[in-house]
Amino acid sequence: MRITNRTIRAVNDLTARWAAVAPAGTVFSAAGVWPLLGLLADGAGGTARTELVEALGVPDGQAGAAARELLGALGAMRGVDSALGLWTRRTLELRESWEAGLPVGAHGVLTADLVADKAALDAWAAERTGGLIERMPVALYEDTELVLASALALRTRWLRPFTEIPREFGTGPWSGRTLLGLRRRTELLDRIGVADTRWGHVTELKVLGDNAVDVHLLLGEERMTPGQVLAAGVDVLARRCPVLPGPALPYGEAGPGLRVVKERSATPDPPSLDVETVAFELTAEHDLLERPEVFGLATATQDGEPGPFPGVSAYPLFVASARQSAMARFHARGFEAAAVTAFGMPGGAMPRLRWATTVVEAVYDRPFGFLALHRHSRLVLAAGWVTDPEPYPEEDPEDIEEYR
């Protein structure tokens, strides 16, 4: 299923807004939240509907269709698994028009056994993410009438793997630590570029996967905030700012963490791109109701008659819980990430060096951001900010010395 540019922009813009308020050292997926908001907007009324539609960035009356479009597109992407689930009390009657918009087989039942229900929801989350997320991020209570959830998992293997090395930094926030460094050299200079954004310069490295799921590593100027760096990455995807590509970079300091130099070489080698970064693994729990205005959920949380969602059910439902569990793992051979979002509604002898070659050196030696995206549509599937990379596993000192 094809996804429209308007929906892609809307999801990526939500990524940027979320990044502005998200803490450092985190991972999140706006693509996991957006379709749920769309389905809720489809059944909302009054101010709740207005706020949801505004947060979604789509015209009123098109939120449900756009949500279904996104879910269908995600399900058709290689390397991406997605699912939507709805569980309700047997006594809760849903509006037929709203229920008809859900995927076939998505509707399950909540029983009076809270322990059994929670176990079933946890099993669904684990199954739909291949074990990457083990629990559904929702608390069940006796008055929980409806749970609406999405699961998103993505996996890719790099077209060109990295080599693992022990990496120590003499300065910066990671000084004094031995980290699991990743290094590789390629002749494809267009994998790197420097964007001139409204907040400052950002170095963008594209790490391509074998199934069109790529990860862009973003290193901004030191004065820039995580939210600004990630929002700048979204602007690059939307072609809202100029990017100077690797082949056009000037000699010297070319951008954050980026230097272009002449090196002596034993053979007449073409220009190359040397990359050093770090492996990372992130997990995060997000309470969307801590910033309800970002997601258009302010009025949706208000209890009362007739309720914010008359198009879902005649029963006065409201959002009492909205949470996301997310993870991301970037390593030498590939990348994987997952998110489950749930709404609860109660209710290497030196040779002779004869030639000179150009080398673009990119070093990610301080906190940086990343965007995991579908290459062809440029839809951001997961985003995050790396502050605590993976440590290099302890080895015999003689083994470590061989790397140096």
Spell out the blueprint of helices and strands.
Blueprint (H helix, E strand, L loop, with lengths): L4 H17 L5 E2 L1 H14 L2 H11 L6 H14 L3 E10 L6 H4 L7 E4 L3 H15 L15 E14 L5 E6 L9 E9 L5 E5 L4 E7 L5 E8 L5 H12 L5 E3 L6 E4 L2 E8 L6 E7 L1 E8 L4 H4 L25 E10 L3 E13 L8 E9 L4 E7 L4 E8 L10 H7 L1
Parallel strand pairs: 2-3, 13-17
Antiparallel strand pairs: 1-19, 2-4, 4-16, 5-6, 6-13, 7-8, 7-10, 8-9, 9-18, 11-12, 12-17, 14-15, 15-16, 18-19
Helix pairs in contact: 1-7, 2-3, 2-4
Notes on the protein architecture:
- This protein has helices at residues 5-21, 30-43, 46-56, 63-76, 96-99, 114-128, 226-237, 292-295, 397-403, and strands spanning 27-28, 80-89, 107-110, 144-157, 163-168, 178-186, 192-196, 201-207, 213-220, 243-245, 252-255, 258-265, 272-278, 280-287, 321-330, 334-346, 355-363, 368-374, 379-386.
- It has 404 residues and is α+β, with helices and mostly antiparallel strands.
- It has 2 domains: 5-156 and 283-346, Antithrombin, subunit I, domain 2 (Antithrombin, Chain I, domain 2, 2-Layer Sandwich), CATH 3.30.497; 158-279 and 350-403, Alpha-1-antitrypsin, domain 1.
- 47% of the residues are buried.
- The strands form 3 sheets. It has a 7-stranded antiparallel sheet with strand order 1-19-18-9-8-7-10. A 6-stranded mixed sheet has the order 3-2-4-16-15-14, with helices on both faces. Strands 5-6-13-17-12-11 form a 6-stranded mixed sheet, with no helix packed on it.
- The chain contains 9 helices and 19 strands.
- Helix 1 (5-21) packs antiparallel against helix 7 and helix 2 runs antiparallel to helix 3 (46-56).
